[in-house]
Every structure is written in structure tokens, then in C-alpha cells.
Design brief:
By secondary structure, the protein is mainly alpha-helical. It has helices at about 5-30, 30-45, 60-90, 95, 100-130, 145-160, 165-170, 180-185, 185-200, 205-230. α1 (about 5-30) packs antiparallel against α3, α3 (about 60-90) packs parallel to α6 and α5 packs across α6. The relative contact order is 0.11.
Length: about 230
């Protein structure tokens, strides 16, 4: 393919991904209240409240649009990931291309699994963060600030859970092997902790542990996958 052919292919993939996001965002808008209730539940349980507060007349509507777009991106993530891999596929060998669809599916599952794991971890994180100083301080967090925190928190988990596929892809391309990955365990542990600290918006030790532990387990599973699937 020429350079212009690559640009045309890139535009096609981007348009299809944006269409997918647009469709899922519109669908998500009709279920906005359900998504908002799901996102707000960990905070409301932590403060023993029944609703979030907003402080500007336009804030509720802008939140509806933002939450719908966020939900649309999450729902469209399998389509986006598939088109990313399809764009890369022409540069791969025939042996490597047969992994495109399985890796796309695993990426999507890991991303969604990371979001679910983040949602399960969020109540503990909120209880820890909000618990500090409650003897003297009353937690009154606006809906805009909290939902920004919640969506970043969940995306951080979703994105972090993707890294095993890239390690597997690197091994597939001959960049690394299971033996090298085993020898890098010490460095991988440090990198995982640092990355988790940078990705998590709370910055507290509990969130760091809740994200770092499953990431290290995924690292070990990647070593096994490279060894037994790729025989490297």
C-alpha cells in the first residue's frame, strides 16, 4: 500500500469507529439515568446519601451528555479495538494476522473486565478517601467533580488491563520471549506500581494495591501464554 492508501484506510477506520461511538452514545443517552445511578451508587453508599448535588443550571444537562459519551465509548470499544488491529494487519505476516481477531476480542474483554474490576474496587477507595477527617469535615462533593473522578477511575482500570495483549503481540513479533519476561519480573513489578500510581486519580495506597495486584497476575499469565501458545 502507498502512503495515500494508508491514509485512506486510516480515514475509513476512523469514520467507522466514530459512527460506532455515535450510535452507542445515542443509545446510552436513553439509558442515562440507569448509568448515572450505577456510577453514583458507590459514592452515595460511602456518604449514606440519596442523590448527587449540582451547582449550575446547565450542569445536569452537560453531565447527561458527558456520561452518555463516556458510556458510548465504553460500549463501542470492541469496534474501535477491532478497527485498530485491522489497520495494523496489512503490516503483519500471514502467521501474525491469524491472531488479529483473537487479540481484538481479548483486548475488548480485558478493557471491559478492567472497568468492572475498577467498579468493584471503587467503594473501598471512596470509603478510605472520604473517611479521612469526617469527624470535622462534611463531604459535599458535586456531581460534576465526582463523575469526572469515577469515569477517570474506571477508564484507568480499563486501559491498564490492556497491557498483556501488547506484551503478547511483542512476543509474537519476536521482540521478547517468555524467558525474557520472567527475567524482567523485578522491573515489571516496579513499572506496574509506578503506572498504577500515575493512572489512578485517587493516589491512595489502597487503590494502588487494588490495581497493581491484578496487573501483576496478568503479567504472569502473559508469560504462560507466550510460553505455551507461541512456544517462545
Amino acid at each position: 500500500m502507498t502512503f495515500m492508501d494508508h491514509l485512506v484506510e486510516l480515514r475509513s477506520r476512523l469514520v467507522k469507529s466514530l459512527i460506532a461511538v455515535g450510535v452507542t452514545t445515542i443509545v446510552a443517552f436513553f439509558f442515562y439515568n440507569d448509568v448515572l445511578e450505577l456510577l453514583a451508587r458507590p459514592y452515595l453508599e460511602a456518604v449514606d446519601g440519596d442523590r448527587l448535588a449540582f451547582f449550575q443550571p446547565t450542569e445536569a444537562f452537560s453531565l447527561a451528555l458527558r456520561v452518555s459519551l463516556w458510556t458510548g465509548v465504553v460500549l463501542a470499544s470492541p469496534v474501535i479495538i477491532y478497527h485498530v488491529w485491522r489497520f495494523v494487519a496489512p503490516a503483519l505476516t500471514a502467521r501474525e494476522r491469524k491472531y488479529v481477531i483473537p487479540l481484538s476480542a481479548i483486548l475488548a474483554l480485558l478493557f471491559l473486565g478492567g472497568i468492572v474490576s475498577g467498579y468493584l474496587a471503587m467503594p473501598l477507595t471512596l470509603e478510605l478517601l472520604i473517611g479521612f477527617g469526617q469527624d470535622l469535615l462534611e463531604p459535599t462533593i458535586g456531581a460534576d467533580f465526582y463523575l469526572r473522578f469515577a469515569m477517570r477511575f474506571l477508564l484507568a482500570f480499563g486501559i491498564a488491563f490492556e497491557f498483556p495483549v501488547f506484551l503478547f503481540a511483542a512476543a509474537l513479533l519476536g521482540v521478547t520471549t517468555s524467558e525474557k519476561l520472567r527475567s524482567w519480573r523485578r522491573y515489571a513489578s516496579a513499572i506496574i506500581v509506578v503506572a498504577a500510581a500515575l493512572l489512578t486519580p485517587g493516589g491512595d495506597p489502597l487503590t494502588l494495591l487494588l490495581l497493581s495486584a491484578p496487573l501483576y497476575v496478568l503479567y504472569e499469565l502473559t508469560i504462560l501464554a507466550v510460553r505455551f501458545i507461541l512456544k517462545k
